[in-house]
Specification:
Order of helices and strands: HHHHHHHHHHHHHHHHHHH
Structural class: mainly alpha
Number of helices: 19
CATH class of the largest domain: Mainly Alpha
Number of domains: 2
Low-confidence stretches: 1-6, 187-196, 384-402
CATH topology of the largest domain: Growth Hormone, Chain: A
Largest sheet: none
Helix content: over 70%
Strand content: under 5%
Number of strands: 0
């Protein structure tokens, strides 16, 4: 595995992911506080801001992926830089609700451009290095930024404009480091073939659809961290703010530690953990959270959810990298991003169930969702073509050497 991280290109890739995540989570608390505290936006209006950003991200991802697979790859970096920095300039110069809504649309496009370019870069790094830990390391870097940023932002910035200005600096730097990554800068022109039309990719890559279905269900599960989970602890614990504030810290730290542990596990075993164990961890999380009302059990449940998330997400991204024909990774990762729609469907669907019953009952009912994730992952794992994938080739090579 160490050989996979020896390249300066890969180090630039991971540094870019960390700075991008750091910049995003640096500004997130200030955006929420500014919307509610300064602009006096209602919770519904604040929710519209988040919804616009997510909708823009999901809808623009396939388009951006199509650009990455073509001959205009360099434009992705310009789109990402412009759409990720302009919103903060708008919010500094025009502090009103309409400017924030427009900014949300731009941020969604910028995030889609950066995320898909990053995934394609990681795919190239995985293929060139032969390491199956690239996506795990990338996911750990993302969560490291999520841990450090809130701690620094709460002490380092006295004003919203200061936080936004530094977010712009970190965003530009992260995009520059990503541009330095040689694999994507050389573009996919040599691999891009007309026979891989959009229709061909969509029809032939059925395994991608299965992965998207599984990740859609995972998004439904993870989205409950910001909806049903706080609703339940608000009704059960007097110190709910203290407990809930630690959820995301536990989540990020668990993800980082899990990625380190997974990097030490052989690829073939890591895949089996993803298919057979991760869904059980997720289901156990909902059962514990639904049936018990203690601080300790809530923390255990969050750790279990974080473990499941940390195992499944990088594994599925690695699968897409393995399955993608040459010159199609951008489109496939763009289509994969549509699975994030579960983050919108989950709160609405299970929020409705909670309104008919109770938050505890709705959370307990969520324990069946990971079974669907297991079915989809098992289908991919057992697919005949998977035995020829890079993942299994690397695994088999390691077994032979061992």
């Amino acid at each position: 595995m160490s050989d996979g991280f020896a390249s300066n290109n890969v180090r630039s890739l991971l540094a870019s992911q960390f700075l991008s995540s750091f910049g995003m989570y640096l500004s997130t608390p200030y955006i929420a506080a500014y919307l509610v505290g300064v602009l006096h936006a209602s919770y519904v209006e604040a929710g519209i801001y988040a919804g616009l950003a997510m909708a823009s991200y999901s809808l623009s991802s396939p388009i951006v992926g199509r650009i990455i697979d073509g001959v205009l790859v360099k434009w992705v970096f310009l789109i990402s830089t412009a759409c990720s920095t302009l919103p903060f300039i708008l919010m500094i110069l025009f502090p009103d609700l309409r400017a924030f809504y427009i900014s949300a649309l731009f941020l969604g496009v910028g995030r889609a451009a950066y995320t898909n370019a990053m995934n394609v870069c990681a795919s190239i790094a995985q293929q060139e290095s032969g390491s199956q830990s690239i996506f795990s390391a990338k996911y750990a870097a993302l969560n490291a930024g999520a841990v450090v940023a809130p701690i620094i932002s709460s002490h380092a910035f006295a004003s919203v404009s200061g936080a936004f200005s530094w977010t712009i600096i970190f965003t530009v730097t992260s995009n520059f480091l990503l541009y330095k990554f040689g694999g994507l800068r050389r573009t996919q022109r040599k691999d891009y073939e007309k026979k891989y039309s959009d229709g061909h990719v969509l029809m032939k890559m059925k395994r991608i659809y299965i992965i998207i279905c599984g990740m859609f269900l995972l998004s439904i599960c993870i989205s409950q961290m910001t909806t049903l989970f706080p609703f339940k602890i608000m009704s059960e614990l007097p110190n709910w703010k203290e407990v809930y504030s630690k959820f995301f810290l536990f989540n990020a730290i668990t993800v980082i530690v899990t990625q380190f542990i997974l990097s030490k596990i052989p690829s073939f075993l890591r895949v089996r953990v993803c298919v057979y164990i991760a869904p059980v961890l997720l289901s156990s999380c909902f059962l514990i959270f639904g049936f018990f009302n203690y601080n300790t059990t809530y923390y255990i449940a969050i750790i279990l959810m974080s473990l499941g998330e940390a195992i499944i997400v990088p594994c599925c991204q690695s699968w897409i990298s393995d399955f993608a024909p040459a010159g199609t990774a951008g489109r496939l990762f763009g289509i994969y991003s549509l699975s994030q729609a579960g983050s919108s469907v989950g709160p609405i669907l299970f929020g409705y169930i909670a309104s008919l019953t109770s938050p505890s009952s709705a959370i307990i009912s969520l324990s069946v969702v990971p079974f669907g994730i297991f079915i989809f992952l098992l289908n991919v794992y057992r697919s005949a073509d998977m035995h020829g994938s890079t993942m299994n080739k690397v695994a088999c090579a390691r077994v032979e050497k061992g």
